[in-house]
Write a structure and sequence with these properties.
The protein contains seven helices and two strands; from the N terminus they run E-E-H-H-H-H-H-H-H. It has about 170 residues and is an alpha+beta fold. The protein has a two-stranded antiparallel sheet. The chain is elongated, with a radius of gyration of 21 Å.
């Protein structure tokens, strides 16, 4: 919830303080830009998505690249807007795609050093490792404060959800 506050700034002991005269729940129409109230990635999600799509197109065998591209297309909007985590890392709008690109870049760097690792499998895994997070409800992923045991259990289901997203593509 957003609040509307009326008050004034006063000086007290050589410091400024805000004195609140009125406070109430704000109407959505009173916020000049509601999106400005949500912490968001500073990175362009379109560019990050195109980077992933370009990598998918480069995977061998081509069928693996097509599979990754198909999944990315199916989850595109969610991938670009969801946070990657509740509190630990990339916990903001657009954080999921930012996190996935960061992991993918790290895997690319490792592949330069470790030539025996299968590039296609490693990069596909990096790009799809958190795809199940798109099914975690906003009420859990964006909840302020600590999670309950039940909410934490819901977040841990993202691996099973990812499996359910990917499995039909292999049949």
């Amino acid at each position: 919830d957003c609040v509307k506050i009326e008050g004034r700034v006063e000086s007290y002991r050589d410091s400024f303080q805000i004195v609140v005269d009125k406070i109430r729940t704000a109407l959505l129409s009173e916020a000049p830009d509601p999106g400005a109230l949500v912490r968001s990635s500073t990175r362009d999600p379109e560019r990050l998505y195109e980077e992933l799509k370009g990598l998918a197109d480069s995977l061998e065998p081509p069928e693996l690249g097509q599979l990754v591209a198909t999944v990315l297309d199916r989850v595109e909007e969610s991938f670009k807007t969801y946070p990657a985590a509740k509190m630990v890392h990339h916990a903001y709008k657009g954080g999921l795609i930012e996190h996935v690109v960061a992991v993918t870049r790290k895997v690319e760097a490792i592949l330069e050093l470790e030539r025996k690792i299968n590039r296609g499998i490693a990069l596909a895994g990096a790009m799809l490792h958190d795809v199940g997070k798109i099914a975690i409800p906003d009420s859990v992923l964006l909840k302020p404060g600590r999670l309950t045991f039940e909410e934490f259990a819901i977040i841990k289901t993202h691996c099973d959800v990812g499996d359910r997203i990917l499995k039909p593509l292999f049949l």
